[in-house]
Design goal:
12 helices; elongated; 6-stranded antiparallel beta sheet; 3 domains
Length: 510
């Protein structure tokens, strides 16, 4: 039975309900002695005579009291009054991670921040012999001071249960599944061994945290289905879609870290929350740009230094770097400042590219910078990089080069691009979104292009019958010459088009 506002449990006065789960009802209350808000969790009356439920409830209080960590909800008190068992915890102002995920995925920097904090909280619990066993977005509260882990009602190992028992008994019924499915409860975050009814240890929590991190990055659950058993089957037998196919700008090191968390075999996961914490902290500190790291691989001994050989090998293959991307960005900022009629503010230069590559084109696209680069084999590739996480992420297939970015953030690119002469490419014009996806082909034999200011049309330069054509819109010839045309650009108002005309073909080296 729900408690009415004003009900007293010892010195605690109920203010309003906060929520309910399989292990209890939670209320906001006022501590009349200290005049502070607290959260009170009570054991539902229909569980009062259930010995197992009462033991879990009492165990949760003991578990929380043994853990003192800034990212774990603090226990204040425990009590029993008028047949009501209750525990008193700190009142957390914020929103649950589950509520936050209803709005979509988090930025990588937020995922790393909260992920590091949760891993640190788990490390504290595991070092005290506590396995949470019910890690999910609904049990993580995001506050101004960071993430807080709560609800240890299923903590510590119990005798193994069958899959059917696990799905029907240990799953709270009040937390909704995503809009795409009908699953409720914690099944999508359970580890394979937990679903199999085997003994669980700290590595089971690491799997669950991996599922939480996956959802934080992508905005969708790692394992989905139309029933609890279909979700359980996927957890046991399938891997979730690669993060890079859903969020192409995700740092590869973060994707790899989450993939290791979600390994089916516990021996192939991070072997402790401390390992995972070190890895997430290393990524958040920009370690993915360094040549080596001190994070531990799954199953490795603590303190083993692991060389980032693949990154070094990649760097060894590259030959030179062009700083044009920075010059373009700085020049654009200066021009904008002068056109506004004000003196330009001092520019703060921030290096965004740490690879040894030839950079051919760069443009802003929202909060990202998109650019084309080619390594020593002269095969171009389009990359995107954010200032808050400077790890270039490839977009689209190799052999693709960037031409322009529209005001709507759409990319104009060349597929199967190859050199003509002096950094001129030719190939099949296509358009695609910054988030990736399949490029949509438009026109073959295109050399250059630029978007109209409203992002609706493209002006292109292409060769037809040995002559260069300037077309706008595509198919309407504005200029045709026997020489070469290049560097097409729209004026800010879109009423003029500038281009470079050369009396002879630029691919004629004679």
């Amino acid at each position: 039975m729900a408690l009415a506002n004003g009900t007293r449990l010892g010195p605690y006065e109920i203010v309003d309900p906060l929520g309910a789960g399989g292990m209890g009802e939670v209320y906001r209350a006022r501590d009349t002695r200290l005049d502070r808000s607290v959260a009170i969790k009570i054991l539902p009356s229909h569980f009062a005579h259930d010995a197992t439920r009462r033991q879990r409830f009492e165990r949760e209080a003991k578990v929380i009291s043994s853990l003192n960590h800034p990212n774990i909800c603090t226990l204040h008190d425990i009590g029993h009054q008028d047949g009501v068992d209750f525990i008193v915890m700190e009142y957390l102002e914020g929103e649950s991670l589950a509520d936050r995920l209803e709005k979509g995925p988090l930025q990588a920097v937020q995922v790393l921040q909260y992920g590091t904090q949760i891993a640190s909280a788990l490390d504290k619990a595991h070092r005290n012999g506590v396995t949470h066993r019910d890690l999910k977005p609904g049990n993580i509260i995001l506050t101004k001071s960071g993430a807080k882990l709560l609800d240890f009602g299923l903590a510590k190992a119990e005798p193994a249960q069958s899959l059917a028992q696990t799905l029907t008994d240990a799953t709270p019924r009040s937390i909704p599944m995503t809009k795409l499915g009908a699953i409720i409860g914690t099944v999508p975050y359970m580890s394979p061994e937990q679903l199999d009814g085997k003994e669980v240890d700290a590595r089971s929590d690491i799997f669950s945290l991996g599922a939480v991190l996956y959802e934080m990055v992508t905005g969708i659950r790692a394992f989905q289905g139309n029933s609890e058993f279909s979700v359980a089957s996927d957890i046991l037998h399938k891997d979730p879609p690669p993060i890079s196919t859903l969020q192409p700008l995700t740092p590869p090191a973060l994707e790899r870290t989450i993939r290791v968390c979600l390994a089916k075999d516990p021996d192939e996961r991070w072997q402790s929350a401390s390992d995972l914490w070190n890895e997430l902290r290393w990524i958040s500190e920009g370690g993915s740009q360094s040549g080596s790291m001190t994070a531990r691989q799954p199953g490795s001994q603590p303190g083993v230094r692991i060389a980032a050989t693949s990154r070094r090998a990649s760097r060894a293959k590259t030959a030179w770097i062009v700083a044009g991307v920075f010059a373009i960005i700085a020049s654009a900022m200066i021009v904008i400042a002068f056109r506004s009629g004000r003196s330009p503010k001092p520019l703060a230069f921030h290096q965004l590219n740490f690879r040894r590559e030839a950079i051919f084109q760069a443009a802003f696209a929202g909060d990202s910078i998109v650019y084309s680069a080619a390594t020593s084999d002269n095969t171009p590739q389009v990359f995107a990089v954010r200032s808050d996480y400077p790890e270039p992420q490839p977009i689209g297939p190799r052999g693709m080069t960037l031409l322009a970015v529209s005001s709507k953030g759409e990319l104009a690119v060349l597929l199967d691009a190859h050199y003509v002469w002096y950094r001129l490419f030719t190939g099949t014009l296509a358009r695609m979104t910054l988030s990736g996806g399949a490029p949509r082909e438009i026109q073959e034999g295109v050399r250059q292009a630029d978007w109209s200011p409203d992002g609706s049309q493209l002006a292109i330069i292409r060769e037809v019958g040995g002559k260069d054509r300037l077309e706008y819109p595509i198919g309407h010839v504005l200029r045709e010459v026997s020489g070469s045309l290049s560097d097409v650009r729209f004026s800010p108002k879109g009423d003029r088009i500038a281009y470079f005309e050369h009396p002879r073909k630029l691919d004629d080296r004679g």
